[in-house]
Amino acid sequence: MKIHEYQAKQLLKKFNVPIPQGGVATDPHEAYQIAEALGGMTYVVKAQIHAGGRGKGGGVKVAADLNEVRQLAEAILGMTLVTHQTGPEGRVVKKVLVEQALDIKQELYLGIVIDRAQARPVIMMSAAGGMEIEEVAARTPELIVKEAIDPAVGLMPYQTRNLAFGVGLDGALIRTASNFITNLYQMFMAYDCSLVEINPLVVTNGGQLLALDAKVNFDDNALYRHKDLIELEDPNEIDPLELEAKKHNLNYIRLDGTVGAMVNGAGLAMATMDLIKLAGAEPANFLDVGGGASADMITNGFRIILGDPRVKAILINIFGGILRCDVLAQGVLEAVKQVQVQVPIIIRLEGTRCEIGRDLLKDSGLDFTVASDMLDAAHKVAALA
Ligand code: ADP
Ligand code: MG
Q1: Ligand 1 within 6 A of 197 CB?
Q2: In the sheet that 345-351 helps form, which strands lie side by side, from edge to edge?
Q3: Which of 192, 199, 212, 246 is most buried as measured by Cβ atoms within 10 A of its Cβ?
Q4: 109 in catalytic set
Q5: Is the pLDDT score of 293 beyond 80?
Q6: Looking at 32, 109, 191, 252, which residue is catalytic?
């Protein structure tokens, strides 16, 4: 799960990680009032969307006075912000964060992620802050300092000092940075985060260290332990088809291709996606309707696949075990009745009651192509998509 910058900063604050003063607004007048209460000299208005690169995309602007805050909020709220992370369709901005503008001396990078290879959290820091860390890693990997944390031992003071020295901090900033990193790591662990990224982490001319930006992702499998986080989820940021699928307990992930796929079992769904690619096409989605899917779930799954205008052909790949093939066939027929199907459908059915299922589809008078096996199905659907 992802959250907005303003929400991430509230969590940081709880863990005593310093953040700039500010507040979130949904209309220009509210933005004005927040700035007024800050009483600063200059302000920053920041679009709140679940994507980075907002600065370059025109979603982060500096205001010289209160009226400019209002004007910028008016311009940014409602705009479709396109950044390198949003895709070409961009995201509509519904909220802005209004903050005091800081007197920045230096921009650093600080991130914590789970390193799967080492099976432990890794803290990364770099003096090349403000820009994309992927670029720094590709061009100047020597500028990134890393410390892996043994979860049984915890973060050791020497590690925070290594990081601070490693990015060239000195004097009192070593201790300040050590505290900052320690608190951030505590938050990472306490909330079962999968990523915490402060980019930039800034050193002000006054010698302060603050999180100017904050990106926090949580491990979905641990969310049941953090009921307080659930309400932070913003439905505006979730793909509407994925949201719909969640309502029906369907395991659906939207992808970029043109072949819609409905499969039972995650393993078979992965194998099906591989075969679609092997046949030269791209899957439009991952959909595992589950082992014990009902006709209702099939109908909903079908409807969701068809809700994606990019889908040019559909591959239904079912191995009937607990889910019987006749139930699947009924579900598909029911769905076809409810929604206008304008794309060809290829079906591969095997297992329990597959003959009955195939006959149901054949006798329906609808135009299905029945494939002999998985590879055949993949080639047929790729040719059509
Ligand atoms: P993004 O990563 O999405 O582009 P950031 O929050 O990192 O958004 O902001 C982009 C840049 O805008 C920062 O690198 C910084 O230079 C500037 N900036 C953001 N917030 C402030 C602020 N409160 N004061 C001064 N400059 C800021
Ligand atoms: Mg940033």
Answers
A1: no
A2: 251-254, 285-288, 259-263, 313-320, 345-351, 368-370
A3: 212
A4: yes
A5: no
A6: 109
